[in-house]
Amino acid sequence: MSSRTLVSQAQLQRGRGKVVYWTLLSVVVLGFTLVFLGPLYWMVTGALKSGQEIAQTPPTLWPQDPQTQNYVDAWTNLALGKLLFNTFYYAAGAVVFQLVFDTAAAYSLSKLRPVLGNVILGLMLATLMIPAMVLIVPQYVTVIDLPILHINLLDSPFSIWLPLVANAFNIFLLKRFFDSIPEDLMAAAMVDGASPLRTLWSIILPMSRPILGVVAIFSVTAVWKDFLWPKLVMPSPETRTVSVGIYAFAGGTPQNVVIAASVIAAIPTVIIFLIFQRNIMSGLTSGSLKG
Amino acid sequence: MAIMTAPAPPRTTAAPSTSSKSRRKIRDNLTGHAFLIGAVICFALFMWYPMIRGVVMSFQRTRRGETTWVGWDNYVRIVADPSFWTAWQNTFYFTVLALVLGYVIPFLVAILLNEFRHAKGYLRILVYLPVMLPPASALFLFKFYAYDPSEAGLFNAILAGLGLPTSEWMQSPTMTIPAMVIASTWMNMGSAVLIYLASLQNIPGELYEAAELDGAGLVKRIWHVTIPQTKLILALLAMLQIVATMQLFIEPLILANGAGTQDSATSVAYLIYQHGFFQNDLNGAAALGVIMLVVLAAFSAVYVRLSTKEN
């Protein structure tokens, strides 16, 4: 199945090639484990050490007297339960908003093709060229006083959900997937008298599960990882996300407790990754390739 | 808006068939726009309007609720600020260093991983794992455990163990940016590795076969087959990475408490944040944003020019 790469299969199975291959493989497996898993191990076990032990030279590999108290303190002092709930709530809402509005828009641009559809698509894709940092100030000013409506969205989850709908990458990804669904299916549904909404719901969406999954996962991780925007639009302690909450407490909290909180904050995304790693990796590469 | 300007159906009695046809066309268009409207409103409110607003704001000054036009005043004030030049210097240094580390290493790692017939899944998961961590979490790990300037810190313990001189890391003005680049590369290289891997898998095996028959060694095969075949994706990722690293923000904020020792960490994005949200100068921050946009756009233009010339 695997086609030939830089070095031929045969060369890797013969005497010297075989030795080199296996040595290199073991070195890389060991090295990668140390480089990428090592710091995480250090983080989880470091948060179990006492303040004295963490300042010890040389550092200990395994905590002599594991202090689960650091994790308990992190949970109670930083109100992590509330912070995690907030973040989860924003992430869930972001998935719903992005799936509903971006799917509808991509469907329209791909299959219904109304007048000026291409102009709108062009204007959407143009936003991919604008660095996020450039827009942060005018976006903030917009959110504190929405044009025409004059509503202040600070501390409202809509200030996270609605800007996330304006995601040209999602529209591009979804539109390209819909483009690959044969036109005949659409025509057949139309002949049967199905409305565009009905066609979307019963024909297009069931076929698009993989791409919808990718959009949903990216949406959850984007909310979970985001820092500056939630920091600006969720200024109250009650509405903070978990990353912002930890940052806000970092100054006056013992280091080990901050790290323990960081470990807890990272658990949800790590679990999501381990469950959906196939979808995440395929989504990542399908977005940037074959374009 | 498009809905409003759609042409009215011709009201002739002679051709009822064309009339119903055009009415049908209008209805189809209305349906199409109805599906678009949610996303269009969000784009208009949070992308298109802020883009214009940012430029407008940069020529205004708002004081005590009163907004006046001030011409280039904000730009003059921003450029006159001594940290403006420090911030650009730091940002460029970070970008270049991040390119050397974060661009070359992932490509080499991808080439290596593509050769392995075993442990592929495991290695991929490992490289991508840091990408999934919230950046704040990962950076606190670096700040408190890895970059601890005493010998109790992870990096210093390793250096001391190898008999090498230890470093003050974030306390040392010369190490601040390299330390931020290391942390940032560790956190972000996973996506680049996976994208390269996917493009490496698209290289037809016959090309390597032919090169080998021509007597090309390993390095020559990389140079004459692998790199030309992945040129497009290599170029695209270089571009994306530069744009991303120029927006350096959370690394200085968490690792260096913002400005860092002797301003060694101040970045342009951090300056935008400072002006906008601490110095009560949203107009100055907007001007700085416009400057950043112009620099990145100029850079992209040069880049596109060069890459089209080559083809």
TrEMBL record, chain A:
Membrane topology: Multi-pass membrane protein
Biological processes per GO annotation: transmembrane transport
Subcellular location: Cell membrane
Any Pfam family the entry gives: BPD_transp_1
Domain ABC transmembrane type-1, first and last residues per copy: 84-276
Annotated TM spans: 20-42, 88-107, 119-140, 160-178, 199-224, 257-276
Domain of life: Bacteria
Stated name of the protein: Carbohydrate ABC transporter membrane protein 2 (CUT1 family)
Species: Actinoplanes lutulentus
UniProtKB/TrEMBL annotation, chain B:
Name used for this protein in its record: Carbohydrate ABC transporter membrane protein 1 (CUT1 family)
Sequence ranges of Low complexity compositional bias: 11-20
Pfam families associated with the record: BPD_transp_1
Source organism, top-level taxon: Bacteria
Family in the record: Belongs to the binding-protein-dependent transport system permease family.
Localization: Cell membrane
InterPro entries cross-referenced by the UniProt entry: ABC_transporter_permease, MetI-like, MetI-like_sf
SUPFAM superfamilies linked: MetI-like
Keyword vocabulary terms for this entry: Cell membrane, Membrane, Transmembrane, Transmembrane helix, Transport
Ranges where the ABC transmembrane type-1 domain occurs: 88-303
Record field: transmembrane: 30-49, 92-113, 125-146, 177-198, 232-250, 285-306
Region ranges (Disordered): 1-24
Species: Actinoplanes lutulentus
GO terms under biological process: transmembrane transport
GO cellular component: plasma membrane
Its membrane topology: Multi-pass membrane protein
